[in-house]
Amino acid sequence: MEKEVILKALQDKFAQDIIRLGQQFGDDIIQIKKKALLPIVNFLRKEPYEFTMLLDLTCVDYLDDEERFEMVYHLFSLKNNIRLRIKARLKESDLKIDSVTSIWKNANWLEREVYDMFGVQFEGHPDLRRIFMYDGFEGYPLRKDYPLRKRQPRIPLKRG
Amino acid sequence: MPTRIQKEARRESMLLNMGPSHPAMHGTIRIMLELDGERILNSEVEVGYLHRGFEKICENRTYFNLLPYTDRLNYVSPLINNLGYVMTIEKMLGLEVPEHAQYIRVIMSELSRISDHLTCLAAMAMECGAFTVFLYKIKAREFIWDFIERTTGARMTTSYIRIGGVRANLHEGWREDLIKAVKETRLVLKDVHALLDKNKIFLNRTRDIAVVSPEMAINYGWTGPCLRSTGVYYDVRKAYPYLVYDQIDFEVPLGERGDNFDRYMVRMLEMEQSLRIIEQAMKKLPDRSPASELNTEGLEPAEAIKMARVRQPEKKVKLSPNLQGMEKENYPLILTSDRRYIMPPKEDVYTTIEGLIRHFKYFMRGHGIRPPKGEVYFSVEGGNGELGYYIVSDGSDKPYRLHLRAPCFHIVSALEEMIQGHYIADVIPTFGSLNMIGGELDR
């Protein structure tokens, strides 16, 4: 199935939820509203599009923008050999997005990583905790306002 | 704070902690097991012991400066990590790399893939008790690393593949070295096949242990040899051909059952294909480089700089042995012709004002390589699977955001489900067959 057909079908079905369809350096980008994330990925995952693989999930912090955080999902369709990038913006005051753990299992760790590094809350995640940093770490290191050389006090040794 | 497994565990079952620093764990990773006798009821994998803030560091380094950090992601195949990063930038800049350099890149990335698979299988076999296999494989890896060392000057942290091409041409007499490395690796592969393929002990510990179905592998985002062991045909080199892989003839080995043995076998067969690729790429490269002898006769750099203040020196400049392979004569072969994105040749820097200005402009903060605004994703087939870089550029000389899609992160996240219901002893070969690399897992 051609890429254009999929994008067309997506645009027809979710006309009011898609903010922008674009292309950059040859990659296809779909900017969506955050509330439409689950319906759109569910639609793409099913036949005949079959974006069965979540390649990557990450977040970008645009410090000066009103909608500060941008979630980035890379989907891949093994059958059609197509990659898609889906992006959704989040406000700092409402830093929540639906979890995709019910659809892809690797989203569990990927979302924990984004929570750890950016502090984004995933609604419906079964076990949202820090993954790389330790319990008791304060702040979110990959945010742009977290200083590169900031040090944190040592934490007491765990007992028992 | 109690961990998930501590909260959920039944009162009568035993909790056992493996790692973070365990002789049978390749990196620092902690597996907490809830046991019923020797059977694993539940487990929890904890990662992050090797977290160095790779992505944060990269946001604060220039595009040229952050290349050495990519070496340290997967220390067994640093050249593929370099390649992935460099090709992402090249995709943004739209650079054309000379064919000669592309073939060098193919050779280097296939050698890295072999050394990656050799290391993984060597450790896996050793943990199953086959120490001979370990020694054989490390021997083969030495031949490969000798070759890499001769050309790049380093065994592990090479930083050899640069934006626009490669750092230096292949070393003098490379063909004999490479033929030797290929031959020795073939012999070792043959020996290992004979030692392990029908070995009762090895089969008992790997056959039908930790079986992964294709659906589960895809759902977990597996790529690379682990995905192919379940029978799914996906290889970035075939699906999205980069470099000259589309002109090279090679096969993608697939497994059938997706158990530990298949993961072992796919890696073994893949190494044979890599050797085939190397042999084909070898034929496309000339034996000698344009500047084959190290120039020992010429002017000392200091002398040349002094002379150049008056007029262009007629004699050639003597270069440090470190720079062998990157003489000006080699530049058309190893680096792109777009001079904005490459380091000027040292001969020019020493003797011409234009060369000196270009050199400073290349390394000065705020100048250097500045890709256009935008975001890009590019991936290569790494030793473990799809190694992708997602880079957001704001038009300055530093990446605004750099994210690495580490193949092993997705693979290790499936470990909890894979070992459930098996014995403690099965954790070791299962974990070995996944090829977990702490550097790229924890970043």
Walk me through the topology:
The complex is a heterodimer of chains A (160) and B (443).
Chain A: H1 3-13, E1 18-24, E2 27-32, H2 37-45, E3 53-61, E4 69-77, E5 82-90, E6 96-98, H3 107-118, E7 121-123
Chain B: H1 4-8, E1 14-18, E2 30-36, E3 39-46, H2 54-59, H3 67-71, H4 78-93, H5 99-127, H6 131-152, E4 161-162, E5 165-166, H7 174-196, H8 200-206, H9 214-219, H10 224-228, H11 236-239, H12 260-283, H13 301-308, H14 331-334, H15 346-351, H16 353-363, E6 374-381, E7 386-393, E8 399-405, H17 407-412, H18 415-419, H19 424-434, H20 438-442
Antiparallel strand pairs in B: 1-2, 2-3, 4-5, 6-7, 7-8
Helix pairs in contact in B: 4-5, 5-6, 5-12, 5-19, 6-7, 7-12, 12-19
What this model shows, in words?
The complex is a heterodimer of chains A (160) and B (443). Chain A has 160 residues and is α/β, with parallel strands linked by helices. Chain A has one domain (3-123): NADH:ubiquinone oxidoreductase Nqo5 subunit (Beta Polymerase, domain 2), CATH 3.30.460.80. Chain A is built from three helices and seven strands, in the order αββαββββαβ. Chain A has helices at residues 3-13, 37-45, 107-118; strands at 18-24, 27-32, 53-61, 69-77, 82-90, 96-98, 121-123. In chain A, the strands form two sheets. A five-stranded mixed beta sheet of chain A has the order 1-2-5-4-3, with helices on one face. In chain A, strands 6-7 form a two-stranded parallel sheet. In chain A, a hairpin with a 2-residue loop joins strand 1 (18-24) and strand 2. Chain A is elongated, with a radius of gyration of 17 Å. By secondary structure, chain B is mainly α. Among the domains of chain B are: 4-46, no CATH class; 301-363, no CATH class. Chain B contains 20 helices and eight strands. Chain B has helices at 4-8, 54-59, 67-71, 78-93, 99-127, 131-152, 174-196, 200-206, 214-219, 224-228, 236-239, 260-283, 301-308, 331-334, 346-351, 353-363, 407-412, 415-419, 424-434, 438-442; strands spanning 14-18, 30-36, 39-46, 161-162, 165-166, 374-381, 386-393, 399-405. In chain B, the strands form three sheets. Chain B has a three-stranded antiparallel beta sheet. In chain B, a hairpin with a 4-residue loop joins strand 6 (374-381) and strand 7. In chain B, helix 5 (99-127) packs antiparallel against helix 6 (131-152) and helix 5 packs antiparallel against helix 19. The model of chain B has no long low-confidence stretch (mean pLDDT 87). Chains A and B meet through strand 3 and helix 3 of A and helix 2, helix 9, strand 6, strand 7 and strand 8 of B.
